[in-house]
Amino acid sequence: MNINKPAIALSLSLGCAFSAHAVEYLFSYDNVLDGIDQKTNTAYININQQGEILHGTSPDGGVLTGEIEQKNNVFTGSGEMERFSFKLLENGAIKWFTGQVTNTGWKGVWYGPNGEQGDFSIGETDPSMALPTAADVVEFKADTTFSGARFDKHNPWNEDFLVPLHDVGSIPFAGVDQSKGIFVQSDSGGLPFPMSFELGFSNSFTLQTFRLGSFNNGQGTRLKTFNLDVWENGQWVTKGSFEFPTIVANRTFEIHEFMLDQKVTANRVRISATGTRDMYHGGRVLMWGLSFH
User: Fold this and answer.
1) Is 175 helix (H, G, I), strand (E, B) or coil?
2) Taking residues 254-266, what's their average pLDDT?
3) How far apart are CA 171 and CA 182, in angstroms?
4) What does residue 289 show for φ and ψ, rounded to 5 degrees?
């Protein structure tokens, strides 16, 4: 399995051994070996079991082989928790996976041929259908254009991230507490585009509809076009490109709802402004109030 590619489908019986009955289970991994799977990447994996033998293939044509031990076997020294190991030959490279079965799934470590390593886990069959909250955010980043100058700013993480503090439509300037939730502003015209902020989550989730806001400061709407990207197979992939409606009234915030063409599953999401209607220097951008629905 090439863990930087769209991955692998896996059939197992959680808390016990892999099954011959094909069922897809969620597979997550990171690239830092510290005993904790940060779920930086997610995919699916497919493995069958015959006795103690594990075998399977990946969508990329890789061949997987390995074994799982019997529990409480005095001859092999096994105990209550089954241990397993497997390797996968794919695209000329072999990767090794080893770990143990727990009552919530499979977990362990992986090693690549050139020093790559990290933690991995295999768990529930589907990404969570529950939408993320602020408590699920493990990382927030904003481009440097949203900091530095006097009016270039972005909020630090706070408990109002992803909370729909306002409904869709217009909100007068005085009605918005700019310290709450996601708020990024490039006031000095920090070209070039795109200008982005991103969120990392503790678990994958499925989304299709979201809300995002902007502002007309009297010189035009400070957002014109933007992309929604998700992290897939080690790179950002654009899932939707949108045009933000013109805000007619001066000194007014507005939130609008947007829909992707199809549902996507991700644990990292990026919003990238690609244009603005603000006439000042052609590069003044404000985005705020991201929430999922």
Assistant:
1) helix
2) 92
3) 16
4) 70, 30
**Amino acid identity for residue 136 in this structure:** D
Bridge partners (DSSP) of residue 253 are 171, 215
pLDDT at 59: 54
What are the DSSP calls for 201-251, one per residue?
EEEEEEEEEEEEEEEE-SSSBS-SEEEEEEEETTEEEEEEEEEPPP--STT
Torsion of CA 255, 261, 266, 270, to 10 degrees: -50
Are 2 and 45 spatial neighbours (Cβ–Cβ below 8 Å)? no
Residue in the structure block whose two tokens are 């886990």: 121
Q: What percent of the chain is modeled with pLDDT above 70?
A: 85
* Residue 121: per-residue pLDDT: 86
How high is the pLDDT of residue 206?
87
Instruction: Name the token pair of 42.
Output: 């997610």
CA distance 43 to 26: 6
Instruction: Report residue 149: phi and psi, to 5°.
Output: -75, 170
Query: Is pLDDT of 96 > 80?
Result: yes
Q: What is the Cα–Cα distance from 247 to 169, expressed in whole angstroms?
A: 10
Strand 195-216 and strand 252-275: the pairing is antiparallel
CA-closest candidate to residue 292, choices 210, 186, 190, 223 = 210
- Secondary structure class of 38 (helix, strand, coil): coil
